[in-house]
Amino acid sequence: MTFFRPLLVLVATFALTGCVHARQADCPSRDDARAEIERAIHDFFDALRKEDQGAFQRLVTGSFYAFDVGKRFDGPELFDVIKDAHAQGVQINWSLGAIDTELQCDVAWSAWENVGSVGIPPDLEPVRWLESAVLIRENGDWKIDFFHSQRAAEN
Fold first, then answer.
1. How far is residue 86's CA from residue 19's CA, in Å, rounded to a whole number?
2. Are 96 and 112 in contact (CB under 8 A)?
3. Per DSSP, what are the bridge partners of residue 74?
4. Alpha-carbon torsion (42, 45, 49, 53), positive or negative
5. With CB atoms 3.0 to 4.6 Å apart as the test, which of 28, 53, 55, 74 could cross-link to 47 if both were Cys?
6. What's the pLDDT score for residue 155?
7. Domain assignment of residue 20, yes or no
8. Sign (positive or negative) of CA dihedral 67, 82, 125, 42
9. For the chain, what is the domain count?
10. What CATH number corresponds to the domain at position 94?
11. Distances (CA, A) of 139 to 31, 61, 83
């Protein structure tokens, strides 16, 4: 039995370290991931701006939800709110600042400042939002699982 104990420890060590190395090999490079995440966030806003529901659905997870304007929006509700605002003549202009991303293999947390305007032209009011998102890498693509936006305090 004492012969098998070191052998068992050796096999367990290889099994555990082999799994860790295999898992790390599946993680994207940090620079590539950050660029892909930034593109996904910009594409998310483009899909909302263009009312492109197909693109929006490809950019969010099946469990996606958002906190915006003091409410929780499940799945496509956020898309519908933006679409309804556009139908009422409301123009929403977004301009995302630098995106700060923290990455842990297939999960990322990003935050940025968004400066733009909202209103019915020509009466557009300047707005500054503080925003963040949690993204998950699914089948090689970064998707937004959670989005949060709130108006920034006036200076």
1. 50
2. yes
3. 65
4. positive
5. 55
6. 73
7. no
8. positive
9. 1
10. 3.10.450.50
11. 18, 11, 29
Domain assignment of residue 111, given as a range: 29-151
Chunked into runs of 10 residues, the chain (155 residues) has average pLDDT values of 44 42 70 97 98 98 97 94 98 98 98 98 97 97 98 89
55: which 2 tokens?
């693109």
Residue appearing with tokens 């104990």: 5
Domain assignment present for 24: no
Q: Could you tell me if residue 106 is inside a domain?
A: yes
Contact at 8 Å (CB) between 136 and 107? yes
Q: Model-level pTM? A: 0.83
Distances (CA, A) of 70 to 51, 57, 86, 149: 22, 23, 20, 9
Note whether residue 115 is domain-resident.
yes
